[in-house]
């Protein structure tokens, strides 16, 4: 129970920051491209209360962490009206890409912070320093995983909007019709992951790029630390 509580104390703040910035990035880029819907609905705030979904932001990732599953979650989607974008087709691609891109930037910030701490032996007392180092490593991992997971080309994930924008218009319309089955596909993916852990679906799909990016972010931390 103590280890679970410690994990939760590390996990929840990292996850909230990752998800809130992810969602705000969608709305902010949409505003820059002509759609102020998120601003009008007061969703460009960094106040987590405006974005947190009790199930997706707290319950699901907490349960996954408790049972040793891959940690991910979601927030209340920031509203985007593609019809108000200056160029709906390109605009939706950029709006979609803004979320994962923000997570990768946050991971880089975490790596720099980790490196700065590691490079200063007197940065904090040993116990607090170990706590901070663990949190930064978890923060990097969560942002990398969240960014890559959202790039999966499964509606309604961000990757589906990017793929739809890249496809010829005729194929894009057909691909867009999958959106009505998006949540079903998502539930099937999660259910299969739980029911058949030996398949390692998410690990096989997301694991290699997560490991590759984590290695580079940790290398950045080492470079900052001067190792």
TrEMBL record:
Top-rank taxon, per record: Bacteria
Ranges that cross the membrane: 58-78, 90-119, 131-152, 181-202
UniProt keyword terms in alphabetical order: Cell membrane, Hydrolase, Membrane, Metal-binding, Metalloprotease, Protease, Transmembrane, Transmembrane helix, Zinc
Bilayer topology term: Multi-pass membrane protein
Recorded GO MF terms: metal ion binding; metallopeptidase activity
GO terms of biological process kind: proteolysis
Subcellular location, record wording: Cell membrane
Limits of the Peptidase M50 domain: 13-184
GO cellular component, one term: plasma membrane
Cofactor: Zn(2+)
Protein family according to the UniProt entry: Belongs to the peptidase M50B family.
Name assigned to this protein: Site-2 protease family protein
